[in-house]
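Input sequence (429 aa), recorded before submission:
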Amino acid sequence: MTTTTRRTFLQVGGLAVGGLTLPGLLRARAQAPARSHKRSVILVWLAGGPSHIDMYDLKPNAPAEVRGEFRPIPTNVTGIQIGEHLPRQAAIMDKFSVVRSVTHTQAGHGMGSQWMQTGYPVTIEVNDNIHPSTGSVVARLKGPNDPGLPAYVNLPRQVSFGKAAYLGAAYNPFSPDASPNDAAFQVRNLRLPGRIDASRLDRRRQLLQDLDTARRDIDLRGDLDGLDTFYRDALDMVTSPKAQRAFDVTREAPRLRDKYGRNDLGQSCLLARRLVEAGVTFVTVQAGGGWDTHGNNFTELKRRLLPQYDAGVAALIEDLYDRGLSDEVLVMSLGEFGRTPKINKDAGRDHWPGAMSVLYAGGGLKMGQAIGTTNALAEYPTSKPFTPGCALATMYHAVGVDHRHVFYDDAQRPLNVLPEGEPIRDLLS
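Predicted structure, token format:
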């Protein structure tokens, strides 16, 4: 009978977090330190490597084989220009900043992603986390801003290199594994199986109470103490109107949904705003995987990638400002590296870690800036070079995490949250 009850609760409360059940996620929440203030992060991850020279660091005076087809346009901040296919962002440049001089040395997708999502370089190409992702670190040290919600979410699906590594599966992200742009979008882990109605669930809740009380009476070591609490909390979250409401993007006005863009990226950005507003601390939005533009770079960017990205990110930034959340929520956009300045034979650009651009919006940071410069071909920084550690330390500063905090890995070696880097001073208030 005990096994049946446990199975029932796993069916009801299981979450897609790397094999961890929702009770385990809640257990991790309870172990997290108390929060000092409610800050949150929305990371827009441009998997594949976005072309910095076609987005935020155009070089109109470079040779044709470098400058490409796109031209810069003015923004609403005097003296700052960005790419012509980002007009909505250009109109709100005063509400975000771009760092044009982030640089590293890893040109492989796995190595670059590991470095930019964890702050730690690796020496071989990898396909999974060796070090904890930024979202997992924040989940471990901050917990959720509301106890009825997960601390860390990936949208619409789990992001590569977004896991917890040695911090443990408890700090892996929750993901709905479905696109909020789908008409039938549902978070399968936040609804009851069709064969279980509320009255049956209440009966099983009481049965679990009775069984765990009996088991505690014969548990001489006390190993089971508190276990039932986490299962009840898990059930409360699964059946909680608040959690279900937070994930229900259909509650948003159709006009606002249109403004974000009726596509995976736009609706994921909108859902990310709903989640941080409700109490999730860290959301990573997967901005597609099409940024690896080895061929037809300009066609792919202007027809699909940049219009969707421009609309989704601009709408997100404006929405947060309109709701008075710009100081509490940091939006950050980046990929694993930039693209080669020289256009290849397939009208594409290849991997280029020598220079890349990172966008920051809100989070109490200074906005309306273009920080750092690159050379005439956008190859390397010529002023204010910043490492991945600097880019991520700025994020940790905004969310209230000490980037020098020490964890211990499986071998009990001390490892800082970041091995190097300090917050970018130009962005600090």
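Checked by second reader. The longest helix spans residues 297-322.
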